Amino acid sequence: MTNEWCGWREATERALYGPDDGFYTRPGGPGPAGHFRTSVHVSPLYAGAVATLLCRVDTALGRPDELALVDVGAGRGELLTGVLAALPDEVAARLRPCAVERAARPPGLDARIEWRGELPAPGSVTGLLFANEWLDNVPVDVVETDADGVARRVLVRADGTERLGEPVDGADAEWLSRWWATSGAGDAAAGPALDADAAKGTAQDAGATRGQAPDADALGAPAPTTPGLRAEIGRPRDEAWAEAVRTLRAGLAVTADYAHERGDRPLFGTLTGFRDGREVAPVPDGSCDITAHVALDACAGPSARRLTQRAALRALGVDGRRPPLALAVTDPSRYVRALSGAGAAAELTDPAGLGGFGWLLEPVGEACAGLLRAVDAG
Ligand SMILES: C[S@@+](CC[C@H](N)C(=O)[O-])C[C@H]1O[C@@H](n2cnc3c(N)ncnc32)[C@H](O)[C@@H]1O
C-alpha cells in the first residue's frame, strides 16, 4: 500500500478491494461478519423475510421456470444460504441463486449458488435482485469547505492524514448542488445551519452494527460559508445501483442500507471505519472497513419506492411483539422459541437501529409494479 495523496474514493477502493491486501478481498479474511453484524447476521428472520418477498415476486411473474435471486455484495453468501433454507421446495427447485461479490467464493458454500465477481449482463435476470449493506461500501470521494466556504476534494494518505485538494467541479459539483446543498458546492443558503460544538458531540458510539447516524436534532443554526462542512459525493453509488437495476429483464430490485435524505444530510458527513465489532477512525490502509451512509434518494430511479426497514419487514411478516403469556403455560418450549424470535424481530425493526435503515424498491416491468402496494399492505 503506497502512502501517496489521493481522493477518498481511490484510497477506499485500494483499502477495501486491493487484490492481495484489501479489507474485504484479502485471502482467508473473516468477511464482514468478522467485524460487524448486519441484519443478515442478526437472525434467520431476515432471510425468511427476503424469501417471502421472493415468493411474492415469483407469483407476480407467473412462476417462471427459472427464478433468479441475485445477492449483490453477498459477503460470505449467508443471505442466499438462509433464503434457500426458508423457501418452499417447489420454489427452491426453480431458483437460480447467484452471489455477486468481490471476495472469493467461500469454501463449503451450497453448490447451487453461483458465485461471480461482476453483475450479470443487462436484461438477463428475471426475479429478485437484493443488496443488503452493499452501497455503503461503494467508495466515494469526500469534500470539505475551506476557509472561504468553497468545497474542495479531501485528499488522504494510507495512514489517514488528510489535506484539502482542488475545488470540486463538473459532474461531482452538480451532484453536490442537487443532492447535498450544505456542501458549499451548491445553494448553501438552502441547507441547515451549523453549530459545530453540538454536532461534534454526536460522534458515533462503538457498536456491533454499523449505521448509527449523528442526531440531526442536535445540529444548530448555520452560515453558508462555514469552513469544515463535509459531504460524500454519492454519484458512484447512483451509477452502481442503476447498473444493478439494469440487469433485470423483469422483477424487483431492492437495496437496504443506512441512509440519509436531502433535507437531513449530516453537516460533517458520515465517513467512518469498523474493525473487530468497533467503530474506529477511517484509515485507508486495509486494516478496517470504510463506510458512509447512502443518499438513497439520489439513487432512486423514477419508479422507485422507499420504505424504512421496519415498515418493509412488518409488511413481510416480521413482528417484534411478545407471544401471549398463556402460551408459556400450554406450550413452554414454543413460548421460549417465540420469545427469542420476537427479540430478534424487535432488533431488526428497531426504529433507532436496523429498523431505521432505508429500503429502496425498484420494479422492472409491469408485473412487479403492483408488488410495491402489496408490500406496503403486507
Ligand atoms: C457490508 S458487506 C455486506 C455483506 C452482506 N450483504 C450482509 O449484509 O451481511 C458489503 C459487501 O459488499 C461487497 N462489495 C462491495 N462492492 C462490491 C461490488 N461492486 N461488487 C460485488 N461485491 C461488492 C464487499 O466485498 C462486502 O463483502
UniProtKB/TrEMBL annotation:
BP term (GO), one: methylation
InterPro entries assigned to the protein according to its UniProt record, in alphabetical order: NDUFAF7 (IPR003788), NDUFAF7_sf (IPR038375), SAM-dependent_MTases_sf (IPR029063)
Pfam family, one: Methyltransf_28
Keywords, comma-separated and alphabetical: Methyltransferase, Transferase
Annotated Low complexity bias: 213-229
GO MF annotation terms: methyltransferase activity
Entry's EC annotation: 2.1.1.-
Residues annotated as transmembrane: none
Tagged with keyword Ligase: no
Keyword Methyltransferase among UniProt keywords: yes
Residue numbers spanned by region Disordered: 197-231
Name the UniProt record assigns to this protein: SAM-dependent methyltransferase
Originating organism: Streptomyces caniferus
